[in-house]
Amino acid sequence: xxxxxxxxxxxxxxxxFQESIIKRAIEEKKVEINLINFRDYTEDPHNKVxxxxxxxxxxxxxxxxxxxxxxxxxxxxxxxxVLLTPDGEVYNQQMANDFCxxxxxxxxxxxxxxxxxxxxxxxxxxxxxxxxxxxxGEVPAMVLVDSITRLLPGVITEExxxxxxxxxxxxxxxxxxxxxxxxxxxxxxxxISGDHQRIANWRREESLKKTQARRPDLLSK
Length: 221
Ligand code: 6GU
Description:
221 residues
């Protein structure tokens, strides 16, 4: 998969893709990530990418020209163009599962006070990562890249995402490792029983209990 990230702040991504699983996925060519500064596409003599809003109001608004020209120069029939914006569809595991099947994602990071409404017409999807306000779409783009990359074939073992929280609209069951007794807190007996059917039943039960207690909204889906 190829992911192009359109941002005015490519340095914000330093480090995030240079550690751990994403780093390995890039090295193993499971994913190619390009940071594109759309300021490079501006035709403004002073390299401007924003302007004041028509009708008045505070702040600067990203203009159409640099983003249109940038997207039009990189998009193909295989591209899915995603705008990161707090008024987008709220991101979830189902959307990650869907995006991980695409060949080419173009992620557009909004910034400043906003962007020209006509930029939405370029995009196939608009995505928010939750009901709170961030300074821009960069952190959300990192969230999408991380959640999508880990689902790509061969990046982590298939089994690891089978059990993920949210994969069936259920939260994960509790896990334990050695020692069996830590400061009097003991590992549930069933996990040491060696009885795989009992363990599977217990995990399912614990997943359901936790989801019921913490996220009953998931169970009604
Ligand atoms: Cl995608 N952008 C911004 N600026 N804030 C957000 C967001 C996106 N998702 C949640 N908050």
